[in-house]
Amino acid sequence: MSTLGFAFPVGLGAKLGNPDVPVLAFCGDGGFMYAVGDMATAVGYGINLVTLVFNNGKYGATQDDQVHGRFDGRVIGTDLHNPDFAALAESFGALGLRVEELAELPQTVISAVDARRPALVEVTVDAMTSLDLSEVFV
Q1: Digit-coded pLDDT (tens) for 87-115
Q2: Which of 16, 78, 118, 124 could serve as 59's disulfide partner, Cβ 3.0–4.6 Å?
Q3: Is residue 1 one of the residues assigned to a domain?
Q4: CA 52 to CA 121: how far, in whole Å?
């Protein structure tokens, strides 16, 4: 997929360009792993980006294309075995948080922004099942 892995590094650039404005990067789990090493850059340079990683254990768009698109339901290479993303962020020296219930998301994001340090919020598949951002961030 053409922009896979794009959100996190571009979020870092957006935060550098707007240091006094909260910046959020929204990533799928597969896409985030394309640029996970940039977490060291965020910590090393104090780039206080808040990254939300939506963890459904797959390259979702690619798998959807395989199931419903051009490949007649043949699925290969799109299921992922992921790390504990919150712990991974902590291992880099960033703040790592996890949301398992959708109702926790707004306050967790506010806490991550208020921390004024690089932060990653892992949103689990259980929280994602009822996710509708138009209702969450009012």
Answers
A1: 999 999 999 999 998 889 999 999 999 99
A2: 78
A3: no
A4: 5
Q: Which of 114, 75, 91 is nearest to 36 (CA)?
A: 91
CB 4 within 8 A of CB 27: no
Identify whether 48 is part of a domain.
yes
User: What is d(CA 90, CA 100) in angstroms, rounded to the nearest whole number?
Assistant: 18
Q: Is residue 67 part of a domain?
A: yes
pTM of the predicted structure, to 2 decimals: 0.83
Give the total number of structural domains in the chain: 1
Q: Is 14 exposed, middle or buried (0-12, 13-18, 19+ CB in 10 A)?
A: middle
Whether the Cβ atoms of residue 82 and residue 71 lie closer than 8 Å to each other: no
* CATH number for the domain that contains residue 80: 3.40.50.970
What gap in Å lies between CA 2 and CA 23, rounded to an integer?
23
Per-residue tokens: 29: 């789990």
